[in-house]
């Protein structure tokens, strides 16, 4: 049973494509649950590719994209009574997309088939997601590379923004770009901003120096872990990784050092 709660922490993960955001978010979810400090946990997959359900080992049938298309198609049909009825049921329709397990709840943004700009629809859905989110203690958002979509469709304020990067030059360029989007352009409002380097192989010092040049805190470094490659290859959920997984151990440390201590607002 989900209970209402006005004090929560919002954690978002972003970074360029291919750096392992989905795998990181799955292991972050597991580590939060293992910490027993997450309270009621909501995981939001804001990436239209929707790779997170498989990585978590769950099946999701409905998405926010389906609700968005329903609203748009009903509005285009021009039937007034249907539009009024749909508007009154919006919060319920959003709630229907929520997947609930014994340990956490999951919300998928999904794709939309409707073309064009529908800012008013996005605003309505964003409001419903915000109302739904108030029922949780901890919210984890797996986002796209850019922050605009997260701001526009999910939330515009987070407590902890994690930029996940690999060790490539392009990855570091994306870290610098997102840092400027937050600190200079204020695309999204966040309390703490930092980078986690993924798939690290004996180059910690160089990465630390690169982060210093960019002017961003290093939240942690996740070592290259072949067990993740193997699990991805055979389609096994990363929530079933062995307890001694190197990557999982690093993310547990990150949770203990940066999330468990994070004040709920």
UniProtKB/TrEMBL annotation:
Signal peptide segment: none
Residues covered by the CobQ/CobB/MinD/ParA nucleotide binding domain: 11-233
GO cellular component terms, semicolon-separated: cytoplasmic side of plasma membrane; cytosol
GO molecular function: ATP binding; ATP hydrolysis activity
GO-annotated biological processes: negative regulation of cell division
Coiled coil: none
InterPro entries: CobQ/CobB/MinD/ParA_Nub-bd_dom, CooC, P-loop_NTPase, ParA/MinD_ATPase
Protein's name in the database: Cobyrinic acid ac-diamide synthase
């Amino acid at each position: 049973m989900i209970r209402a709660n006005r004090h929560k922490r919002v954690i978002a993960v972003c970074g360029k494509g291919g750096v392992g955001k989905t795998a990181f978010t799955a292991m972050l979810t597991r580590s939060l649950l293992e910490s027993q400090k997450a309270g009621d946990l909501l995981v939001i997959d804001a990436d239209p590719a929707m790779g997170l359900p498989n990585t978590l080992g769950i099946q999701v049938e409905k998405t926010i994209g389906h609700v968005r298309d329903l609203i748009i198609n009903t509005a285009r049909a021009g039937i007034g009574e249907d539009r009024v009825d749909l508007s009154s049921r919006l919060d319920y329709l959003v709630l229907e997309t929520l997947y609930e397990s014994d340990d956490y709840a999951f919300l998928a943004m999904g794709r939309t088939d409707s073309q064009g700009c529908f800012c008013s629809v996005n605003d309505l859905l964003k409001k419903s997601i915000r109302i739904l989110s108030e029922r949780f203690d901890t919210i984890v958002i797996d986002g796209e590379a850019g922050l605009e979509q997260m701001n526009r469709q999910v939330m515009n304020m987070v407590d902890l923004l994690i930029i996940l990067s690999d060790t490539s030059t392009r990855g570091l360029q994306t870290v610098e770009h997102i840092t400027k989007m937050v600190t200079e352009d204020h695309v999204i409002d966040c309390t703490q901003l930092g980078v986690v380097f993924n798939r690290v192989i004996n180059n910690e010092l160089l990465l630390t120096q690169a982060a210093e040049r960019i002017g961003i805190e290093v939240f942690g470094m996740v070592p290259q872990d072949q067990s993740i490659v193997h699990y991805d290859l055979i389609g096994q959920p990363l929530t079933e990784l062995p307890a001694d997984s190197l990557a999982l151990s690093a993310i547990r440390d990150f949770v203990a050092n940066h999330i468990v201590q994070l004040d709920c607002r």
